[in-house]
Amino acid sequence: MNTRISGFSQRVTNTALRLSNAGSEFSGDLLPDLYSNSSIFDAGTFTNMGYTASVTQHLGEHVKVTAIYGSSDNLTPEVTTLTADTADDLRKILRSVRRGQVTLRASAVLPVTGTRVSGSYQFSDYNTLNPAQIYSTQPLSPVPGLNLSVRQRIPASFGLPWRVEATADIRNILAQGYLPITAADGRQLLVVQNPRSFRGGLAFIF
Length: 206
Fold this sequence. Notes:
By secondary structure, the protein is an all-beta fold. The chain is built from 1 helix and 13 strands. The chain has one helix at about 85-90, and strands spanning about 1-10, 15-20, 30, 40, 45-60, 65-75, 95-110, 115-125, 145-155, 165-170, 180, 190, 195-205. It has an 8-stranded antiparallel β-sheet with strand order 1-5-6-7-8-9-10-13. Strand 7 and strand 8 form a beta hairpin. The longest helix is centred in the middle third of the chain and has 6 residues, at about 85-90. The chain is globular, with a radius of gyration of 20 Å.
């Protein structure tokens, strides 16, 4: 059994949150998000302190399970309706609250095919947003929601000097942590920490 404990303190001057259905009034404070139908919103300065503790247990040669507990400062909207549709108004309603999170993770390597499968779920307050730690000494980074990852090694051919893996990564399968904000004109904005997404591809490992 392996045990790890770490603490952190960070001050981020341009906190990045995902924002969906934003209009031109937020221009200058948004960047396109290449992995979802949303944008990256500059939420301003955010100071975050916390700690994480994890325990990992190997179950035989091919399976291991990990439990992670963390406590940190999160962001949550004080109100759910904007009085004006500007980036500053959205930033003003975000306040810091202290929350804890419990993450369970399991991973396995199938003995015949060598397929690597891992899955995790985080129990948390999904009415808050927990910006990721920029620097962490933990080998595993807790990810909100229900997540699944599969990696399959493909046999090399033609004497190529690298190996190839097919990858599939499904994030936030249950679409948790979507916080609705009503704009002044009646539109519904969504502030999202970990959007539901599917990524797949080939990885060339030299």
